[in-house]
Amino acid sequence: QVHLVESGGGVVQAGGSLRLSCAATGKTFSIDTMRWYREASKKQRELVAAITTAGAVMYADSAKGRFTISRDIAKDMMYLQMNSLKLEDTAVYYCNAEAYRDLDFAGDYWGQGTQVTVSS
Question: How many other β-carbons are positioned within 10 Å of the β-carbon of residue 109?
Fold first, then answer.
């Protein structure tokens, strides 16, 4: 089992910044890749950024140059620094983790989400 808890969402003006955090607790499995997704109203959930245990990262085109994903493996934490926020970044942001028991995939885990609202 892995329990993921996001925090750091809120209301920010366009052009502002927010830093989201994701804490992994109650781990009985190890975690490999972690990801941030977001789901805007009436839209499908989309991948924003991902980071492996080795530190390799990827970003959606919409996040490149503005968002930075990072991870503190020792603290079981993942972060998303979001700068130059736009109205279209408004969404619920979800933390996702791939869990493994030894070398066997043990499932995808999700947090409850944190709301990010960008105002004009």
Answer: 19
